[in-house]
Amino acid sequence: MISNTTLDSLNNSLSGDVLYDDLHKTLYATDASVYRKIPLAVAYPTNEKDIKVLIDFATKNNITLIPRTAGTSLAGQCVGDGIVVDVSKHFTNIIAFDELSKTITLQPGIVRDSLNGFLKPYGLFFGPNTSTSNRCMIGGMVGNNSSGSTSIKYGVTRDKVIQINAILSDGSTAVFKEITSQEFIQKTKLDTLEGKIYKSIIDELSPKEAQSEIHNEFPKPAIHRRNTGYAVDEFLKSDLFGGTEKTINVAKFLTGSEGTLAFTTEITLQLDDLPPTESIMVCTHFKSINESLQATVIAMKHNLYNCELMDKTILDCTKNNRELAKNRFFLQGDPEAVLMLEVAAETLLEAQLLADKLIADLAKNNFGYHHPKVYGKDIAKVHYLRKAGLGALGNMVGDQKAVACIEDTAVALEDLPNYIEEFTQIMAKYQQNAVYYAHAGAGELHLRPILNLKKKADVVLFRKITTETAELVKKYKGSFSGEHGDGIVRAEFIPLMIGDKNYQLLRRIKKAFDANNVFNKGKVTDAFAMDENLRYEIDRKEPEIDTIQDFSDSKGILRMAEKCNGSGDCRKPVEAGGTMCPSYRATKDEKDTTRARANTLREVLTNNKEQNKFNSAELKEVLSLCLSCKACASECPSNVDVATMKAEFLYQYQEENGYSFRNKLFANNVKYNKLGSIAPSITNLVLNTSLTKAIMGVAQHRSVPKLAPKTLKKWYTKQSFTSKTYKKTVYLFCDEFSNYYDVEIGKDAFILLHKLGYDLKMINHAESGRSFISKGFLKEAKAVCNLNIDYFKDIVTADTPLIGIEPSAILTFRDEYLRLADDKKAAEKIAKNTFTFEEFLANEIKKGNINDKLFTQEEKQLKIHGHCHQKALSGTSSSFQIMNLPKNYKVTIMNTGCCGMAGSFGYEKEHYDVSMQVGEDTLFPKVRNCSSETEIVAAGTSCRHQIYDGTNRIAKHPITILKEALI
To answer: pTM, whole model, 2 decimals?
Structure first.
């Protein structure tokens, strides 16, 4: 047993960090697989010296090091009981780039898509393209020999690796690259571990019997997606081992070795020219899986750049995701399968001819019933839908999930229909409706049985189905692991797949590289059992957790957390677009991802022995930097809504531990604003003093919003809007921000809608409860929710909708109120007829009730920043539509992510730096780049304050922009 004192000593010897607290060990106990092993510690090395120290420590203490980048492995490669070594934070540099030779040398922690962003101006790219490409890292791709959707055209990662710089198990360094056969022999004479490795390879592979065994037992040479065991078959290309090539490259052998042989510190890659500029995707619809696979054989004769499959199960999972539903535009009817077939050429006309020829060939063979062609930017939307399929499987409500165990099988393309037919028979025997997904053109489908791994019977099935599928793959001389690697789930089947003699060969090679199991023990050789160390205790008594919010849509809050399958979409960097996850983007710490929060919730709610399971310091820490932006509710394919779960945690935790003075102050801001509005000028003066900020715990650099001289409600009582006829009566929800701070916007709303012919009314109602929700005062939030439901249930209809100015307030009716309301039917009815101001106007434009006649013809540039809740629950397209009402306005929606203010979050002194860093990630630079004549548009009151504090620019609400544009 290694003591904390010993780990402290290790930490002090590194320039990086070693953490061994319960929270970090929990976060790194899982990856994107079904496995869970609590590690000894987590290390974040900053340089090669740190890695050497870790190797020395592991050797002396007889423990293993588990290398990790993004942690999106599906087979358990990143799970172990040693020290997890996370290089994703510090090993992120490009070392060298040679445009002429089309090569690049980099560290393992660079995100694949970020690399291609760097390469694009040079007309180059790194071809292998996984579904996780916007967050997976090159080190992980090399470790797994990843391939993805482009492999049929650009090959797999092994094809691109030129050189690997690595640290060996004795702490020495080695450079593995292409060398001549003679140089290889010379290497065997080195009196070093590197020399012993080369000698071992010569000794093991020189005998003809060994070569023959490999040829006979390994997958068919035509299968280029092959990652079962170590790639010893790669050596047989050399003239040293019966092949014809006069050079040999151990780097290609290391590719796919899952960090079990050496610790990679630098990788040199061969790059490709960018694909042709014009492409068309034919999305052919089928009535059966088998038909789609037979069609694949025909389609692959057409020089495709992509040939991907999605089945009905995956497609259905995308229906209930707000973000993914937008990308289903090409679907017609309810197909059992869709093939996504991409052709490309230098001109659109050439691409069109290729697409038409493909469709004609499919039709001639009676394949497919609908062949829509997708062009331009819409192709990326289809790709996104396919890529998100993995995460979308987490959307299955309840304990049954599509399990990764047989999802990586690859066979020769001509064998695929027969293989799948036999596989389907296996599934039918076990009464399984499997998921069929991914790379049909490469002979690989990500097949998944649907199992409940909390139950012993299904864990038994887990092994049975995996075993029978392995035997079937062997029958077709296929690869049991095409691109996801062996990890834990498939490693124990390697002897079956390649024969015991070859397996013993792998064991000896592992020993030559790593005699003491320093690197990633239990993977590839001497494997952990595939049905042990699962995420969930088998046949456990399911924890009963009472919540004030209604989580019945996920069968409880614990199952909502369990929807996170670890796919890591929340780790995508700023350049990937979207909003999730702003805190991770600011800190680059795994602790600050959506995944970390869901994992911790799952772990604590399952295992906490406290009567109140939410009473946890680990939960408090992991949720502390959550901005409650709700991006995860839409951008996470599994819809893991951490903001809602955080509100529940705050309520439950504070009920046990008390509510702080500052939280009471912020939560009850309506009450205090009401008092402050008696003498607003004095209140504003006092609130913006250093002493007051210090007392309230507000950052000194923040400007506290100023109360208006008169509230909107008071102003409204003095107004009289009359007209002979109105197009419609509309009710305005007078939110607390518009009432006390943004009164001028509220006035603009009345002027604008009256001029456009609408009867805008306000009734007496309660505040939205947004501040209560964000601070976890859920009893108070529930009370105002019920009051507002009572106020509006008899007056809000399709003909008399409810609209709001502040997105975070009005959208509570469509989100949190549905979980808090006692009268669910009334809440649902109101939600259906509640809109943001922008949505309402956009709908009226669509109906022809509003046109550009009443607006200026002046030219103006507008840049829109969308509020996070608006993007997650509504969308920004309506903002774009209404800002284009004045016909000469040039409108752009900025891809700006989260502003970083997030209500009170950005005012709190301990969160100020993170808040401003979030703003600096995307929003502030884009605002600063706007000319002074460009109007910045932002619907959120917090967004406008953050823009002012971060850039000194005044942003306007869309209502004000349109009111000023009236003629």
So the answer is: 0.94
